[in-house]
Amino acid sequence: MRNNKPEATEHIEHKVSSVRIRVFDAARRDESLTEATSSLMQTAKAQKCGILVTRHGYDLYSAVVSSDVPHGLIREISQI
User: Fold this and answer.
1) Residue 21 needs a FRET pair 20 to 30 A away by CA distance; which of 3, 13, 56, 58 works?
2) How many CA atoms lie within 13 A of 26 on its CB side?
């Protein structure tokens, strides 16, 4: 006899809200930062926030979804 109960499944949605970027090749810096901010776009849109990109060192950046940045914008700051 077959069990006709529907199988329970779990849906897990991963929301990325921050990314650390280490740039080893200066020529790829802009491409790496674009990839990082693109990965945050869905979360930023859902939260109606912008994205803050921070330069921590010559080769280290972070990108985070931030309510301090207006929706639809990407703001860049440097800590060096």
Assistant:
1) 13
2) 2
